[in-house]
Amino acid sequence: MFERFTQRARTAVQNAHEEANALGHRTVGTEHLVLAMFTTGGIAADVLQACAVEREGFVATLTGTDDAAALRSIGIDLDAVRSSVEQTFGPGALEQAELPRRGGFLFRRSKLPNRFGNDAKKALELSLRVALSMKHNYIGTEHLLLGILREERGTGGRLLREQGMSYDRTMELVKAALRNVA
Fold first, then answer.
1. What are the tens digits of pLDDT across the range 148-169?
2. Considering only CA atoms, which of 142, 117, 90 is closest in space to residue 16?
3. Is 61 exposed, middle or buried (0-12, 13-18, 19+ CB in 10 A)?
4. Burial class of residue 94 (count of CB atoms within 10 Å of its CB; 0-12, 13-18, 19+)
5. Domain residues of the chain, as ranges?
């Protein structure tokens, strides 16, 4: 199947491994494929941009960095908590501590071996089906994006749907982009 992938789609799949590693995840999921599309470029990146889906917002939703807003919604003022902790334990008490050193070298987490999760495998399979249904003999980033949206259990597709993307609308945008390229 990978022989049908365009160079850009192959790069996206490779970059998905790096995205999973950067987040400390052992498996590559559809969310990592989406993250890779932002940096790989191509039709998928253009469609994500047209749908107002931005990398920073996607990462924030994925990693839960919007926790401060969630805490505020239940009456917890994170700034007040930070101030109180720093008054008691000193400035910077909540900052991440330096990793321990081993043999004079800073110890870092080694690159994690990661495999494709079931959702990513299914999305890759669906991207092939999408390409064939469009009568394309290649799989591009646009097919990957559509495969992710069609895969119902993956985090990547769920987060995209929560941001207003749908398979049908994305297909329309992909077809329009392909017409503009031709």
1. 999 989 999 999 999 999 999 9
2. 117
3. middle
4. exposed
5. 2-64+114-181, 67-96
